[in-house]
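Two folds, back to back.
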Amino acid sequence: MKAVKVETDGSIKLPEEMLRLFPTSTEFAAWMEGDTILLKRLQPLRPSQTAERVAEKEMPLKDIVGEVHRMRRERRIASARMPARNNRNGVQRDCGH
């Protein structure tokens, strides 16, 4: 276990051995359980995974819209678990994306 601290800009630098496990720009969902901060790597579907979910015929627009709404809903749920913080001017900002 390594100690980390919250910087003045709200960022937290993970230990090098953890950072090596994830490519640059990896996105995480972050939420709290009690006094514990949890991070979960977000893994968007690869195009091949999306293709596997689609039947042989062309996907109807209604189904495409449903998939878009499902993915947006998942992102909103992940974002909602992240508390808002105040910046230096006292203005509340989202700690998500």
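---
second:
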Amino acid sequence: MSWFCFLCAFFFFNLLIHTDPPGPPTGLKPIEVTKDSVTLTWNEPDEDGGSPITGYWVERYDPEQDKWIKCNKMPVKDTTFK
């Protein structure tokens, strides 16, 4: 196989598996707020980046540590999280 054919095959393979990041979820809103928790709901992103959305990571900001912390251990499959 010539280098040109190898390069073309590599490029074509990358086109087949290449996906972009999905867009952000839309319509994020709290639907229940208590002193200890909040239930969030959202809509799927308008753009999936070329792959199905398989789950969501929910994070909260901790100002004392100046970092974002995940709220779930596994990706949330639904569009609601408490």
